[in-house]
Give the backbone structure.
Amino acid sequence: MLDRDELPDAPEHRRGVPQDRHAHLLMPGGLEAIERLLPRADVRKDLLAAGARELALSSGMLALTPDGWFRRWRHHSHVTITCSRPLLEWVVRRAVLGTNANVEVHRARVTGLRGSARRVLGVTVEPCADAGSDAPFPAGHCGHRPADGRPAALDADWVVDASGRGTRVVPWLEALGIHGIAAKDVDSGLANATRVYRTPSGAQEWPLTLIQPDPYSGRPGRSGMIVPIENDRWMVSLGGMRGSEPPSDPDAFLEYALALPSPLVGRLIAAAEPLTEVFTSHSTSNSRRYLDKVRHWPDRFVALGDAAATFNPLYGQGMSVAALGALALAEALADGGLDTPGLARGVQRAAARSVEAAWTTAVSTDVLYPGVEGGTPTAADRLTAAYSRRLTRTATGSYVAASALWDVTTLRTGPARLMRPGAILAALAGPPLPPLSGPPLTDRERAILSAIG
């Protein structure tokens, strides 16, 4: 494995992951994929032992939608892992290296693909600028390492591009003679602002708290969330679409939180001890490269995760899509082996199924916000939005409808789940229970909120 970053020996932030200071959720679909990829490790157990939280969306979440508060049910379903991104990376990396003796990590920057339009034979690499001239390369595999500083040639049986939002996969493929790769960008202008707080005394079991943006009002959406993470901390992320971006000033950060459709997030952090400055990010656009549609795809190469598509992080699906793509590759290799004709093309198409599900969720909503760039709502988008809103309104008072929504948003199933008879009938019938007048807090949570002030 090649990485341009010096990978830390502990859960630490690193430069190559610009979003790692913001909130991440490991959805059930992603966790299931990771567990299948690493059957000899217990990633879930290791995450919890390191301080990650395990929350059931059905009972351990406070969520305000544009159509009201979700209820909390007795069902313990759609279990999600919450922790910092550095902790998740560290646990997964230890599991990979601890259960696979043939996996090695080397620090280098990939500069291109080697081979032809028919088959990728390896990559070209160069040492990272701050790694020194003796930066390690896989012993015995470098076909050519010039002394004049030019990129070295590295042979490979199979190449996976998992280089994230900064991928150069399109120009790399064009250099091999593969042209006409379609791409699409839809940018709602979302900006994130995140600050970490010490969990207030007695609030260690506070639920995941989400104030969702409203795509139907015709105004820029605003959102806020409290994500419980390791070491008794809250990661608080505020989001605002173009024209309503959250501030980096600490006092204005709190004011923004208090001005959300519910002041709950602001009230909770008003008396909490901040542990970091406010970090901001604008790297949030939906960007897709339709690699699965390329007419001629080279053997022995795939692009997975953010290298294939990126999503508005508001929906929390990026890590899970990457894990599902890796699972598609692992299953294909187990079934067919490296020499199977068209294997890489089949993997790229299989990985596109989870990409399509996440893309549909993100883009069909983002195009509704004013000022969005790269897309306008089509008739199909408006029809989808109308049905989604009706189902969401039903889900505020129906576990059947809520479960259908969570099945899709957590990537346990595809969007077709929402068109099953049970979901459609629930949406047509509407919520069987009346709307809540406020967040569904337990008596203990009300006491905590009262004590905070």
